[in-house]
Amino acid sequence: MSKRYAVILAAGQGTRMKSSLYKVLHPVCGKPMVQHVIDQLSRLDLTNLITVVGHGAEKVKSHVGDKSLFALQEEQLGTAHAVMQAESLLAHEKGTTIVVCGDTPLITAETIESLLKHHEATNAMATILTAHAEDPTGYGRIIRNEQGSVEKIVEHKDATEQERLVQEINTGTYCFDNEKLFETLSKVSNDNVQGEYYLPDVIEILKNEGQIISAYQTSDFAETLGVNDRFALSQAEETMKKRINKQHMLNGVTIVDPSNTYISADAVIGRDTVIYPGTVIQGTVVIGENCEVGPNSEIKDCKIGNNTSIRHSVAHDSEIGHEVTIGPFAHIRPQSLIGDEVRVGNFVEIKKASFGKGSKASHLSYIGDAEVGKGVNLGCGSITVNYDGKNKFLTKIEDGAFVGCNSNLIAPVTIGEGAYVAAGSTVTDDVPGKALSIARAKQVNKENYAEKLDINKKS
Ligand code: UD1
Ligand code: CA
């Protein structure tokens, strides 16, 4: 097998997106389009992967990181000109170069592999990945001669009425003999409606030189969708969502209503976990086995153990253990560490706090900047008063402590092991282990005083 290289075209402005975000960074199921393409290509055995960047180069580079080399296209003069920017990195190499557009996020490694095989088997100088489109508007059309072999690709804007009737489209993915590609790029002109150097023109030039041109038609048009505007973006999202959900279901996850469940491309979910409708799972999420998530929950960048239930709740950037119960209507904010068998009940907000095994905050609490030990009970309405308007302070609640209802723990403060805070306390000083702390005004009962107030007297 000869060496294989890939060039991803990601320098375009994306005018039709009407966005301040660079086109290839628009997310599909939470991951930038260009990242989808790179991740698929990374599954192939490639010597080098080069992303051509231009608009928003720095942002694109920082997203992609070290998964690719980069070539800069300062001015966007067309797709042929874009590939040419990889010349100094690639032109001298022998082998096959795959070119993929950064705006075709649904393309799979399997299809590119089939394209490569076809290219190698036919000894072609160039092989185009084509597809049959019900509505080919906007795509380059594959023009074949009477014998059925490819003559050229005509862009929609340059096509005649007759050519526009052709439904076989250029998907924007190709294989080329590397040296021949770079030799031919310099012969491409910009004499067309858009005044651009078109990569597809390489095909006609090679054909006229008598080289073998091949085409491989995929049966799945959806996979080759090029995203030029927000409508196509929503179509890509829909297709990717179905693909991701199906994969989880085949792996043993129950998704009660797949059309109403949104799972990011990078989520890992264990067997027998059930995802209820209205659930949005974003970023890098790992969910264990036999969990219940949803309905109506949002989970982003979290790691969740086994047998845990999260209902009607939001959890971000946190770690949640095994056999935990969260919700309904709880909010787990970043940097929280919820231990095994913890219970976080309704209207509880947790921020940057750790909870040891078996602790509970069952109702109406705010626990922020806190270390909660094991077996702690935080009564209804317990609040860590962590912020004085300028700085944040830590609250420590040691193992087995019991905090009564409606208590304010004014940080920095420690509630010692096994201590008991009476309901309604405002605790400003540390409570020693095993102590009872009562920090509230003493109750005074004035006999018969209510009568003097005459509260029942009608005016
Ligand atoms: C392109 C193809 C068309 C094909 C379609 C498939 C050309 C001329 N046309 O059209 O035949 O049917 O893709 O989706 O190639 N880019 C650069 N630098 C540039 C211009 C574009 O890097 O100077 C990048 C864009 O970021 C994009 C990709 O190349 O990722 C394709 O460019 P785009 O303008 O979207 O081409 P289409 O009009 O869709
Ligand atoms: Ca496009």
Automatic annotation (TrEMBL):
Residues 231-251 are annotated as: Linker. Residues 252-459 are annotated as: N-acetyltransferase. The active site is at H363. Its EC number is 2.7.7.23, 2.3.1.157. Residues 266-352 form the Mannose-1-phosphate guanyltransferase C-terminal domain. It catalyses: N-acetyl-alpha-D-glucosamine 1-phosphate + UTP + H(+) = UDP-N-acetyl-alpha-D-glucosamine + diphosphate; alpha-D-glucosamine 1-phosphate + acetyl-CoA = N-acetyl-alpha-D-glucosamine 1-phosphate + CoA + H(+). Residues 1-230 are annotated as: Pyrophosphorylase. InterPro entries: Bifunctional_GlmU, GlmU-like, GlmU_C_LbH, GMPPB_C, Hexapep, Hexapep_transf_CS, NTP_transferase_dom, Nucleotide-diphossugar_trans. It is an enzyme of class 2 (transferase). Residues 6-216 form the Nucleotidyl transferase domain. GO terms for cellular component: cytoplasm; membrane. Its cofactor is Mg(2+). The keyword Repeat applies. GO terms for biological process: cell morphogenesis; cell wall organization; lipid A biosynthetic process; peptidoglycan biosynthetic process; regulation of cell shape; UDP-N-acetylglucosamine biosynthetic process. UDP-N-acetyl-alpha-D-glucosamine binds at residues 9-12, 23, 73, 78-79, 140, 155, 170, 228, 333, 351, 366, 377. Mg(2+) binds at D103, N228. The keyword Acetylation does not apply. Transmembrane segments: none annotated. Keywords: Acyltransferase, Cell shape, Cell wall biogenesis/degradation, Cytoplasm, Magnesium, Metal-binding, Multifunctional enzyme, Nucleotidyltransferase, Peptidoglycan synthesis, Repeat, Transferase. Acetyl-CoA binds at N386, Y387, A423, R440. GO terms for molecular function: glucosamine-1-phosphate N-acetyltransferase activity; magnesium ion binding; UDP-N-acetylglucosamine diphosphorylase activity. Its main location: cytoplasm. NCBIfam families: glmU (TIGR01173), PRK14354.1 (NF010934). Catalyzes the last two sequential reactions in the de novo biosynthetic pathway for UDP-N-acetylglucosamine (UDP-GlcNAc). The C-terminal domain catalyzes the transfer of acetyl group from acetyl coenzyme A to glucosamine-1-phosphate (GlcN-1-P) to produce N-acetylglucosamine-1-phosphate (GlcNAc-1-P), which is converted into UDP-GlcNAc by the transfer of uridine 5-monophosphate (from uridine 5-triphosphate), a reaction catalyzed by the N-terminal domain. In the N-terminal section; belongs to the N-acetylglucosamine-1-phosphate uridyltransferase family. This is Bifunctional protein GlmU. It comes from Priestia aryabhattai. The lineage of its organism: Bacteria, Bacillati, Bacillota, Bacilli, Bacillales.
